[in-house]
Every structure is written in C-alpha cells, then in structure tokens.
C-alpha cells in the first residue's frame, strides 16, 4: 500500500515538474544543477528559505508598528481610541447579527414600536454598532505606514539594482543564453524578499483589519506568489524583476496618500493621489505593454522560441494587462463623471476598497471631484451611499445628538471625521 502511494506521488511530482513543460527544448533540470557563475542557477529548493524569512518580516512588522508607526500616528494627532460603543440591546443585536446591518424604513418603524424608541435613536444605534466593528484609525495608519515603508524601500532597491543591470537598458538581454543565466546575489535577494513579503501578507491577512475584499485579496496574493515562484523556478528572473519594479512604482504613493488622509492632511492627500493616478496610468498602460509585453511576446519568441510554459507565462501577463485596462477605464470614467456631474457614483455597485484588489497594489481606488474651486478625492455623496459613517466618537455624537439631517455648514455640506464631506475619503 505504501509502495503504491509512493509511486502515485512520484508520478504526480514528475507530472508537475515535467521538463517538457517548464523548460525549452533540449534543456533538462540536470543542466541547471551546476553552480554557474556568481550565485548559481535558480532552484526550487531555494523557495524553502522564503518561509522563515516571511516569518521574520512579519515579526519586524509587529515591532515597527509598535515602536515606529504608532508614535508617528500619535504625533500627527491620531487618537488611540476606538469607536463609541452602542448601548447593549438584545433585540437590536439579534437583528444586526441575523437579519441586516442596514434596516429599511419599514423595519425601523417596527423596531420603534416594539422597543418604544424613536426611529432616529434606532438609526443611531445601528450606526454606532456598525462603527463598533470598524478598526480605529490608528490601526489603519500603522498598517499603511508599514506597507509604505516596505514598498518604498524595495522599490528604491529595485531601481538601484536594475539601473546597473544590462537588461534594464536592453530587454533582449533577458533572453540571451536563456535559461543558462546565473543569479547574482543582489538579484536573488530582490526576488526572495519580494516573495517573502507576499507570504508575510498571506500570514498577516488573518490578523489584519478584515475588509470586504478579503477573499479577493487572498486570491490575489496566491496569484502573485504563484507568478513570482514560477518565474524564479523557470529562471525568467530578469524579466520578472522588471515586472515587479514596474508594479512597485505606484504602491508606495498609494500608501502615502492613505497616510495623509488618516492624518487629515487633505491637500497633501489630494496631491499624492493625483501623482499616484498619473504614475499608475503611465506604468500600467504605457510601460507595461510597450516594454514588458514587447519583450516577453516578441523578443523572446525571436530568441528562444515558444514552449508550453512560455504560453502560460505570457497568458498570465496578458490577463494582467486586461485588468490594467479595465481598472484604468473605470478610474478615468468615474473621474470624468465627477468633473461633469459634481459627484461620484460607483459603477455596478463597486466598493472603492475592492477595485484595485486584483492588481499588484494595495486595495484602494482614486476618484477626483471639482468642488469649491479645487480637486477632491474619493467623494461619496449621500445619494450614492445611504450611510456615510465614521469610526470616531465625534462623528457619532454629532449625528446622534443633533437633528436627523446632521450638522451642516452654510452650504449644506455634512461634516464627517473632521472634514467636510465634499473633501473626505470614503471610509474603508
């Protein structure tokens, strides 16, 4: 029985690592066993070093958030406090958990009669109960600051490394003498660090803030890990470094804009998001197809020719380009509607935190709005979202103790989390 199981496992392993699928013709795994020059050739066993490194990165993150990010958050005025808790009520809690978190008018009237509460008081209770499940701004700031720091450091390292690499200036060097292209120590470090970071995100996703796009991001991390691992084992590391660096170019800008938003530096937030949008469009719609896809599709075909895993690799890269086009179109369309109509609506009920989830970027979305003579980001009018909420006690007290319409300025704009609603982010 054990012999049969071992034989079946061996057949499965041989099928997964078929030389005819993964490698060009007349190349075998034994040909890549030699050390080559420098750091040797990529090998599947190198991937084992990723897991302890990912655990180390996760540990460093915990220390960073505790001793660096949190003091910075407190310094810029972010309070270390959670949302104002809702008054305990068994009936409303049962409705909240089992039926709906957003009761309609008919249900509100029924609950009002059952509890002898004012409808406004019940609305306030549900708002506070929803905010109670939201993480404090301090936690979100610390998470974003960690990602900003890593993305910025790895992007700077990647640019510095690629600047001295010949394939950065001549992409045909990605395929010359392929697959006999030995690793350098710097290239191996860059690749392994990127892969270890995404594995650390897989670990931390179960302890981080739970967002609506949890499942999408889980699949996204798996796909990213698969692409990086595949390109490493297949020794397509040269073109892989170009892809990683290109996608890292906008990541730290997005996190920087989120940090500015959490700190309530709205003008800085708007500026960073405009820069992020420009960089995103240039890298994903310009450099990616005319620089990356050009070399993976045409130059590689000319130099090494196609083979089975070549089709898989380019198929995944083309799917990624389709996603770039779709999300860029949505960004441009929503921004255009904002300029024309003066407010933002999400097409198809899209959640702004989920729109970029399938890209090699953190989940978020950028929109522009002209209001009061300037651009504003991530504006959501009350017509488009029934309940604009905040996790702060100040917002709860304002909306729950004043008139049903909430506090307003002279031009009727509601206040949310310390900003006028026309210039605030949609809550995550």
From TrEMBL:
Record pathway: Lipid metabolism; sphingolipid metabolism; Sphingolipid metabolism
Membrane-spanning residues: 148-169, 189-207, 214-233, 272-291, 311-332
Subcellular location, record wording: Endoplasmic reticulum membrane; Nucleus
PROSITE patterns the UniProt entry points to: HOMEOBOX_2 (PS50071), TLC (PS50922)
Membrane topology: Multi-pass membrane protein
SUPFAM superfamilies (alphabetical): Homeodomain-like
Region: Disordered, residue numbers: 386-428
Record's protein name: LOW QUALITY PROTEIN: ceramide synthase 5
Encoding gene, per UniProt annotation: Cers5
């Amino acid at each position: 029985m054990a012999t049969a199981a071992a034989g079946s496992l061996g057949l499965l392993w041989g099928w997964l690592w078929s030389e005819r699928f993964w490698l060009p013709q007349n190349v075998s795994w034994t040909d890549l066993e030699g050390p080559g020059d420098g750091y040797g050739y990529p090998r599947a066993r190198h991937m084992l070093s990723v897991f302890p490194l990912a655990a180390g990165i996760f540990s460093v993150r915990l220390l960073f958030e505790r001793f660096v990010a949190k003091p910075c958050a407190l310094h810029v005025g972010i309070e270390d406090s959670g949302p104002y808790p809702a008054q305990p009520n068994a009936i409303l809690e049962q409705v909240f958990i089992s039926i709906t978190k957003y009761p309609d008018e008919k249900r509100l009237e029924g609950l009002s009669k059952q509890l002898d509460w004012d409808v406004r008081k019940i609305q306030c209770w549900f708002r506070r109960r929803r905010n109670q499940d939201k993480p404090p701004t301090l936690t979100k700031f610390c998470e974003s600051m960690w990602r900003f720091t890593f993305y910025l450091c790895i992007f700077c390292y990647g640019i510095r490394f690629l600047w001295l690499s010949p394939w950065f200036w001549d992409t045909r060097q990605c395929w010359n003498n392929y697959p006999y292209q030995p690793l350098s120590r710097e290239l191996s470090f860059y690749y392994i660090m990127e892969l270890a970071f995404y594995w650390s995100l897989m670990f931390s996703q179960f302890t981080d803030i739970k967002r609506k796009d949890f499942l999408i991001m889980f699949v996204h991390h798996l796909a990213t890990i698969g692409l990086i691992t595949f390109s490493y084992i297949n020794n397509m590391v040269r073109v892989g470094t170009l892809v990683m660096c290109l996608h890292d170019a906008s990541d730290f800008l997005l996190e920087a804009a989120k940090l500015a938003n959490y700190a309530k530096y709205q003008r800085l937030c708007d500026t960073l998001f405009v820069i992020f949008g420009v960089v995103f469009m240039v890298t994903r719609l310009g450099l990616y197809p005319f620089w990356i896809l050009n070399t993976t599709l045409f130059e590689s075909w000319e130099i090494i020719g196609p083979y089975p895993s070549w089709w898989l690799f380019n198929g995944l890269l083309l799917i990624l380009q389709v996603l770039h086009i779709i999300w860029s179109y949505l960004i441009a369309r929503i921004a255009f509607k904002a300029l024309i109509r003066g407010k933002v609506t999400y097409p198809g009920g899209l959640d702004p935190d989920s729109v970029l989830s399938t890209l090699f970027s953190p989940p978020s979305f950028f929109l522009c709005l002209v209001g009061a003579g300037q651009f504003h980001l991530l504006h959501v009018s009350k017509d488009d979202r029934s309940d604009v909420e905040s996790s702060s006690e100040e917002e709860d007290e304002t909306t729950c103790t004043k008139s049903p319409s909430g506090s307003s300025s002279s031009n009727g704009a509601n206040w949310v989390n310390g900003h006028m609603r026309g210039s605030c982010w949609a809550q995550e």
